Amino acid sequence: MTTQATDYLIIGAGAVGLAFADSLLDEDPDCHITFVDKHAKPGGHWNDAYSFVALHQPSAFYGVNSLAFTSEAIDTHGANAGLCALASGTEVLAYFEKVMNLRLLPSGRVAYHRLSEFKGRDESGTATIRGVLSGEEKRITVRRKLVDATFYQTSVPSTHTRAFAVDEDARICIPGDLPDLWKRPENIPEAFVILGGGKTAMDVAVWLTEAGVAPDRIHWVRPRDSWLNNRKYLQPGEDFLAATVESQMAHLEAFRVSQSGEEVFENLEKGGYMLRIDPEVTPEMYHYAVISEGEIAMLRRITQVIRKGRVTRVANGALHFGETVHPVPVPAGALHIDCTARAVPFSSADNAGPQFRGDTIVLQPVMVPLVTFSAALTAYIEAHFPDDATKNQLARAAELTDTPATFPYAFMMNLMNRGTWMQTPEIAAWLAKSRLDPTGPTVARMSAAGDPRLAALSGFRQAVMAAMPDVIRLGMAAKAIHETAASPAK
Ligand SMILES: Cc1cc2nc3c(=O)[nH]c(=O)nc-3n(C[C@H](O)[C@H](O)[C@H](O)COP(=O)(O)OP(=O)(O)OC[C@H]3O[C@@H](n4cnc5c(N)ncnc54)[C@H](O)[C@@H]3O)c2cc1C
Q1: In the CATH scheme, what is the homologous superfamily, with its name and number, of domain 2-150+353-394?
Q2: CB within 6 Å of ligand 1 — which residues?
């Protein structure tokens, strides 16, 4: 068995592991980094995505710090018109390949064991990895830290295990199968049944609608409806700063006047900052998804929505929802599309806790839901601050919350963390130049140029101070709900 040595062994070459490594290479010019990842290519779950997947946030602040996405143009047509173009899954994957092949490996300080699984680490700090195809085991001496970049346990339709039964004569597919339907015209179904209420299901509904499928041919099982961020208020750069600040001010005001997380969302909807598909249904889910008003208009055209909870069995012509609910008829021969994979954990996660744990770092969000920003900043903090207590104080792990009721917990953690960073001059300087920070570099550029549009920020700091007692009031109540909540339905 061969033995190699490294300073940091990162488990996972997905977005999070790559963002961490990219920043650490710059911030600690002496360190050596090794990746181990089961996938054949960098990019993690983006390797397994359906072909029409796209980032739902602007690519301007996604990925790694050192490399921008190539296309950040404004869309001129379609449901996203007027807003920054969304990077397709293919672009995201190509981007991460470029990060690995043109940036990390040529540094001479990075090793990458693809198609390899992390098997464990012994008491001396030596890790064992095993080639997925070769079966060959290697030992890696970890001089400094093991970095767990698998916390999010991303689950997507093509790799997850279904939690419901499917009868043999029922038709079911995953989103990635839809673009191939044209190859067998005789197999095109009369009806489609979308299973799941999350962003993947919304992508499928938009895709089918844009492909010309009449809304009355689509049935949609939505165990829970969702609040969604209006993409108009989450755009990067100088031209959109006023809208971003307006939305943040509206959030602060909503916290000031609301008695619960649910009420925060109702107040945000009044200003158009939060959207929902069905105005008659109160959403019970909030997973930070971002959507345009154009997409919402398309989704509203689908009116055959089944709200009976989670499907337990898919039969040809009927959907079952456990023992106590009557089966719901759907057209015989309908094609069911499984959009029930849970993406990332929105419940209180098993491995949650501090990020810095002696000889191990468990990468988690420090600014929800910006997972790559969080990993990059955590690398900066690892390189520049002395001990775990200080590092954990500067990079307090937050959690991805699941519902409107629990969102105030994440919002409180975000504000508290940002407050700490702004009082730490080195970190404030880093934020001002990190492309992963949605506003930092924009504000820095505008300040340097004396841009009058910066006036949008006047009063923002005072608004934060004024809202903070209410953010903490709702945030602590939400934390208690989050920590006792059962695993969510999608
Ligand atoms: C469809 C979709 C769209 C999304 N859009 C956005 C968005 O717009 N903005 C946003 O911020 N987030 C978005 N997300 C959230 C998304 O989870 C993150 O953006 C990010 O890609 C997650 O990266 P990751 O590195 O944490 O996980 P992964 O991509 O899952 O990478 C983890 C890697 O670890 C490897 N691994 C796990 N265990 C082992 C082991 N024992 N040994 C070796 N390797 C192992 C896996 O093979 C995998 O490659 C989206 C998620 C989905 C599913």
Answers
A1: FAD/NAD(P)-binding domain (3.50.50.60)
A2: 11-17, 36-39, 44-45, 49, 53, 55-57, 62, 117-118, 149-150, 152, 154, 156, 343-344, 369-371
